Amino acid sequence: MARRIVLVVVAVSSAVVLNHVAKLLMATGILKHVYNHVPGNCSFVPGVEQGSEDIVLSSSGLAFISSGLVPAGFIADPVYESTFVSRILVFDYQNPTKGAKKVNIVPKSLEEDFMPHGLSLYEDKSGEVRLFVVNHAKGHKDRVELFRFDADSNSLHHIKSVTHPLLYSLNDIVATGLETFYATNDKYTNGLYSRMAEIWLLLPWSNVVYYSGGEAIIVADGLMYANGINLSPDSKLLYVANPTDYAVTVYHRQDDNTLKFSHDILLYAGADNIFVDSSSGDLWVAGHPKPVHFAWHMENASYPCGSQVLRIENPADEKTPRITEMYSDDGRWLWGSSVGCYHDKQLLIGTVNHKLMHCTVDVPL
Questions:
Q1: In whole angstroms, what is the distance from residue 35 CA to residue 307 CA?
Q2: pTM score, two decimals?
Q3: What would the pLDDT profile of 308-330 be if each residue is shown by its tens digit?
C-alpha cells in the first residue's frame, strides 16, 4: 500500500514538473525556427540607436516614440544604464525621409527623473493632443505623466503626474479620456530576482487596472505577463498582450469600465505592444519569436535576437481571426521588436533597446 502511494505521488509530481517544463519550452520559444521576410523596402531610421519601445499615432500621421528604456526584471548589460538617454521622439509619416527628432519636454527638469515606457495618445474634440507616458521614475516609483503636445514648438508640456498604490509595475497604458486610462502591471514584485522568479515559475500575478478621478481598481487579473494594451476603434473591446501565454487576450469593456473576458488569440510568439488600425480595426502586434533570446540580448547587448510583426484581422471573432506574419527577422537586422505601427502603407517597427526600422508595405492587405 505504501509503495502504491509513493508511486502515485511520484507520478503526479512528475506530471506536474513535465507540464511546467513543456509550458516553459513554449514560452521561451527555444525550439522555434525563425525565417526572414519583409513587406517591402526596409531601412533603419537615422538617429535612433537606443530603442523605440512604444509608438503611438496621431490623426495627422505623427508618431510619438519612447526611447531609452532599460526594462526591469532582466539581468542587464551595464552598457544600457551607462549610455542610454531617455527621451520622446516624433516621426512624421508624411515626411519619412526626415527621420525621427527629439521632442522638447517642458519643464526640462522633468527629464532628470524620466524613463518612458508605454505610451497612449488622446485627442479631444477641440483638437488638443494629450500624450500619456508610463514613467519608470527612480527607486521603483512608477507613475503616469500627462502632457499636452504643441506642434508649433515641437514640445510636450507637462500637465500632471499620476500615482496610485495599484500603479506599481507599469508596462503600458491606453487613454479613455483626458485623465482616465487602463494600464497594465506586468509583475507583482519589484526585486530583480523576484520578478525573474515570476516569469520562470509562470505565476499569474499580473493585472490590468482602470484609473479615473484619483481612484484605481483592478479590472482583470490572473495574467502571467500583462504587457501591451489597446482599445478597439469603437472602444468596446480591450486587448492585452500576454507574451508568456503566447497570446493576445480580448475583453469586453463594460459600462462601468470593468472588463469581461471574451477569448484568447493564440499567436505562438511573445507579443509585446499592440497597435490598432483605426480604419480597419486590425491589430498589428510586434514581439519576440524567441523570448529567451531577448533575455540573453538584455544580458549581452551584442547578442542578436529576432523580431516579428503580426497582423490580426477580425480580432473580435474568437472563431475566425486571421493572422498574417508581416515581418520576420532571425536577428540579422533588427533586434528585439516591441511595436509595429502601420499607417499609409508604411510600417514603423520599434525595438526595446535597438534601432527603429521603416518599411514600405508593398504586399496586398
A1: 10
A2: 0.92
A3: 999 999 999 988 899 999 999 99
